[in-house]
Amino acid sequence: MLHIPFNNQYATLGQSFFTETMPSPVAKPKLIKFNDDLAESLGISTTDLDANDLADFFAGNRIADGSVPLAMAYAGHQFGNFVPQLGDGRAILLGEVLSPDGDNFDVQLKGSGPTVYSRNGDGRAALGPVLREYLVSEAMAALGVPTTRALAAVTTGEEVVRERLLPGGVITRVARSFIRVGTFEYFAARGDLDAVRKLADYVIVHNYPHLSDADNPYAALFQTVVDQQAALIAKWMQFGFIHGVMNTDNMSIAGETIDYGPCAFMDEYEHNKVFSSIDRNGRYAYNNQPAIGLWNLTRLAECMAPLFNPDEDTAVEIAKDILTTYQHSYEQHWLVNMRAKCGLSSDIDNAIAGDDKVLIESLLDIMAHNHADFTLTFSYLSQLMGEFLEQNSKQDSVLNNLFDNVTQLNNWLNKWQVRLSHDSISTEQRQANMQAVNPVYIPRNHQVEAAIRAAEDQNDFSVFHDLLEVLQNPYDQQEGNDKFRLPPRADEIVYQTFCGT
Ligand code: AMP
Ligand code: MG
After folding, report:
1. Which of 120, 119, 155 is nearest to 134 (CA)?
2. Per the residue annotation, which of 56, 106, 249, 356 is the catalytic one?
3. Is the pTM of this model over 0.70?
4. Residue 240: CB within 6 Å of ligand 1?
5. How close is the Cα of 290 to the center of ligand 2, in Å?
6. By three-state DSSP, how is residue 446 classified?
7. Across 426-434, average pLDDT
């Protein structure tokens, strides 16, 4: 029997927040993967169920006891343009779970058939994007980036019509909340302040119960969302992750990475890297992500401000004061993260620490100039610490091979050495610290693509499983898994990613 400890609250908010919708059954569901560890942490038990039973449940053909399936309403700014009604067009919330640790999580099927919010879409997902979301979201979790998780993936035995016919899939994903900035926009745009308040109250109870004691709980909620978003985007930057569609409907109120579409980790470092085929103006380019975060939070401020104070001017002042904390908060997180990547301590004399930002940015500049691989540069830099240890030499380092102009690299390494000498920490300890934050393995595009190709073209899921396995331990060098570490060969490079809708 499938037991999911549902504790549904969203369904009590009222009809304007959602539409109850059953998933549409699929022809021949087949289980690709069930995330046992995640299930266990959520208190989900699957006693006596085989793969076929799980496939039925996680395709939406059977519904677990206690589930109240519904599609959530939301709006959103897509590429800067407001769309008053989006909503779950291909996703269905099965319900909320209260985990054994006392945390709330939402469990949702994606690709489970049409809803009233589907507009012209079919409510389905192609297998490729399902596998991509599974791999990338689980890799993010293992890297330590706040993210929705993947609980299950199935093939449907049906085809979906895209540019061509593609096999269909359903992913079950788990979030601390599926409420988005766009959910607040949905009600604010309708002038329904009571609903905005109800939503904010729900978010406080569901995700941030400690805030209910704050002097101004709604302002405290907004401040928390701002802080979490600044921290989240600093994490993305730390790993070279590009979300690709940071529309307000794709920004979670719980500070998690959500809605994996045309996302990608970059190989060669480029300041303004874009992968998404639909991001023609680079609105969501790598370096633009921090600024877009603030833009989205400003939209949220516009929705929430009336809750901060009955006096409009005071409310706007409060909103502005909170928004101004974002930039500093982001920069602090970025500096702490990037220092750690470079093995620099953060508790150091201001006179020395003051130049760290310049030092780090100059590394990024020469990486860009030399088309150096982002992940490997930092990973090899951590390894180099070992070479300093062993032979006090940086000659013939693998790091050199990443740079066309080795003089630029060596100049930087010399400055780095001088800076390192100010930290009173052993080289061994520094190396351990660096290796704990600089991954060996990330879900590289060409590897994700290879997993999708094998599954779609040959019905071979072994590539997906192998890659997923490697990505579970991204910081440990794994015997025999070097191919997952390396950047693509010229013929393997993925230049563009697609939404897959
Ligand atoms: P996304 O770009 O995935 O964030 O989706 C934006 C909006 O389009 C959301 O309201 C989705 O539910 C909806 N949508 C995307 N793909 C489909 C689809 N295949 N069928 C129905 N709605 C979709
Ligand atoms: Mg979305």
Report:
1. 155
2. 249
3. yes
4. no
5. 19
6. helix
7. 94
